[in-house]
Amino acid sequence: MKINKYIYWVLSIFLLTLYSCSTDTDGSAKLLKKVVETSAQGTVGTTLFTYNGTEIVSIEGAQKRTDFTYTDGLITKSVTLNKTNQLIETIEYSYLEGKLVEAESLGNYRINYIHNTDNTVSYQKFTIGSGNQETKEFHGTLYFENENLIKEERIFDNTASGVLSKYSVSFDYDSKHNPLYNILGYKKLLEYNEGISSNNSLISTVITSVSKDNQITSSANFYKSSFKYDLDNYPTEQVSENAIATNGNVGYLKSEYFY
């Protein structure tokens, strides 16, 4: 009987250790602290992430800084300043039962969201002009699968009479950890595109089309990225041949991630 108890005790310790090691290797929650971007011309830009626990406090780059405000674990405001502390944009977020229903850039635009029962989100964007007059700019649908934004479809409402303009972007993902996903409340900010997904986008496909007088003009662009990962399956490096950098430049970009 004592031998059986000893074997049970040893086996329990072994299984606990094995589970602990497995969790550390593939399930440890990391927070992104720094991103270093290098362009084809050798220009280097650094972005720093500051936290209070798992709440994001600020994201600071070379040209601007964005500060975040939380209410009950949800991001309710972001304020973006340039390096001379001049206000660029303030966005306020409203929720219903923990789901984002409105994002308003004060004096600029407003986006309304409706969460559907089929795991899609419908939205409408209105621009805000003088006298707070609103003009519907476009409407569309967000499609989700396995905690990833897999597609966005958009129809523009501010086109000329008889013109139908459409835009869509779809994303293909790896099975690794998105370094932004562990930020509390970040995945609820629906305008952040693939940045709110649980995995990392390998290929994004952008299709635009314009229809007028029964004639359709369309184009398709593909944006590909390759990644290197650490032992916890978080990306340490991303290389894109035609990415859009934080400074607005388009082309080759290498991004290094630090936690």
Automatic annotation (TrEMBL):
Residues 1-22 form the signal peptide. Keywords: Signal. It comes from the Bacteria. This is YD repeat-containing protein. The lineage of its organism: Bacteria, Pseudomonadati, Bacteroidota, Flavobacteriia, Flavobacteriales.
